[in-house]
Amino acid sequence: MANDYYELPLKPLKLFNKHQIKYCDLKESIAHFIHLINTTHFGECRFDYSFGCAIWDVDFDNLRTSNSLKSKIVKSLNDSINKHETRLDNINVTVSIKQEESNDDINTNCIKKRVDISVKGMVKKTNEPFSYVEYFYIGPLSY
Predict the structure, then answer these.
(1) Mind listing the pLDDT tens digit of every residue in the chain (143 residues)?
(2) What is the signed CA dihedral for 50, 55, 58, 62, rounded to 10 degrees?
(3) Which of 4, 8, 17, 48 has the fewest CB within 10 Å, making it most exposed?
(4) Which residues contact 35 (CB under 8 A, 6 or more apart)?
(5) Distance between first and last Cα of the chain
(6) How is 32-59 classified by DSSP, letter by letter?
(7) Neighbours of 130 (CB within 10 A)
(8) Other CB atoms within 10 Å distance of the CB of residue 81
(9) How far apart, in whole angstroms, are the C-alpha atoms of residue 37 and residue 52?
């Protein structure tokens, strides 16, 4: 059980009722945790107000340039992942922001900012390389 990690989303009711729950390996667990950091707003976790990232802070920010949004997100993710994901070493976060046009229905075109996030590092326990890629659309946030 030392190498078993709970898969997200965690279903606590299954734990309490002693039903079978899903497990994942170490790399998947790290990826789930980074996704949790990415999708959590600062202050949302009452036990640790520093848990989360700044993507929520820039969700409707249309006044900043893509470069300033990018640097704010990179700094925020770097700080949060380094602080909270202690199973990784040599963490490198890269972010790119681009605009994409989407068709919500037949007559409506929307332009959203797409935030591509890449996290690379080294798993401390196994000394294996780790890579994680995810993207979000902001304004409003969706994934």
Answers:
(1) 455 787 877 777 877 888 888 888 899 999 999 999 998 988 888 888 889 988 877 766 665 667 778 888 899 999 999 999 999 999 999 999 888 776 666 666 677 788 899 999 999 999 999 999 999 887 655 54
(2) 170
(3) 17
(4) 8, 134
(5) 32
(6) HHHHHHHT-BTT-STT-TT-SBTTGGGT
(7) 22
(8) 23
(9) 5
DSSP string of 20-31, one letter each residue: ---EE-HHHHHH
pTM here?
A: 0.80
**Identity of the amino acid at 95:** V
Residue ranges covered by each domain of the chain: 5-138
Domain 5-138 class, CATH top level: alpha beta
Rounded CA separation 113/30 (Å): 26
Q: How far apart are CA 22 and CA 96, in angstroms?
A: 33
